[in-house]
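This is your field. Pick holes in the following sequence-structure pair:
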Amino acid sequence: VAQSECMLNRQRREKPIVNRMIKDGKRVVRERFFVDSDTCTGDHACIRLSGCPSLTIKPNPNPLKLDPVAYVDNSCVGCGHCGEVAHAAVLCPSFSRVELIFNPTWWDRFTATLRRTIIGWLQKRADKRRPRFIVEGATAEGARA
């Protein structure tokens, strides 16, 4: 039994208002959910338990994994039900919530730049510590000379 308004009906009502706000240059934050295909296990418990029409499957981009991966398509209304089910049942480490910011303020731009800078610095630091293996006679393309 549903405890709230149907999100599809709500989306139909609110979408024109949000689009008008974006067009008028007002700051709008929209929530979306995302499944990381690199860490998706392929068991699809998130799809079975949530029943969300936006959750679907797509071919796995990793050629070594045979199972298709979960995918959140563009019809996601950001209600959060699928994410709640996935995290409450400790189902999926690949589920995450993303905030899309339309017409960001100067503070939004500053924090995004700061985050990118710090993450880039940490990534370079981790890359330096990662061991590298050099094969004698190999070229940059991986073919033997």
Helices lie at 7-23, 45-50, 81-88, 106-129. Residues 31 and 99 are 5 Å apart (CA to CA).
